[in-house]
Write a structure and sequence with these properties.
This is NADH dehydrogenase subunit E. Helix content is about 45%, strand content about 10%. It has about 160 residues and is of the alpha+beta class.
Length: about 160
């Protein structure tokens, strides 16, 4: 067992939501629990989740590599996903992404040298009219991100966990 007892308890609660012959339905939630605890999903965690759920490891691997909310490589403390799909691209999504690339000194799928930020292209986030749109750590959606708002976001994230 590679996860904490609390993580397996959470996975058990997810499994309880589905009939016994539909255990694969808990894959996404289980991966989210594992990633929350470990920060990313190395191969051994994916295999452990598969064994715990009782599904083939390839079934879990397919989910982990299909959805960009799951990280199969290490990422920074703060993962920023910027929507660059066409509607957002037409409303400054690409400009916002380019600004973040310059500000952070990284390209998409790269992590800053200090390990604090990973920048990725996100898929549609369903808020096209509020572009530029981004999601921080798969949980916090930010909309209408001007350069000033991007500066404030990055500065705020940089100061998290640092002494005041």
């Amino acid at each position: 067992m590679l996860l904490s007892a609390q993580a397996y308890e959470k996975i058990d609660r997810e499994l309880a939501k589905f009939p016994g012959d539909q255990r694969q339905s808990a894959i996404m939630a289980s991966l989210a629990i594992a990633q929350e605890e470990k920060g990313w999903l190395p191969a051994e965690i994916i295999e452990d989740v598969a064994n715990y759920i009782g599904v083939p490891p390839i079934a879990v691997q397919e989910v982990a590599t299909f959805y960009n909310m799951f990280d199969v490589k290490p990422v920074g403390t703060h993962k920023i996903a910027v929507c660059t799909n066409l509607p957002c691209a037409l409303r400054n999504g690409v400009s916002a992404a380019d600004y973040l690339k310059r500000k952070l000194g990284v390209d998409f799928r790269e992590t800053t040298a200090d390990g604090k930020f990973t920048l990725i292209e996100g898929e549609c986030m369903g808020a096209c009219g509020d572009s530029p749109v981004l999601i921080v750590n798969n949980k916090h959606m930010c909309v209408r991100m001007s350069e000033q708002k991007l500066d404030a976001l990055v500065d705020g994230l940089k100061s998290q966990g640092e002494p005041a």
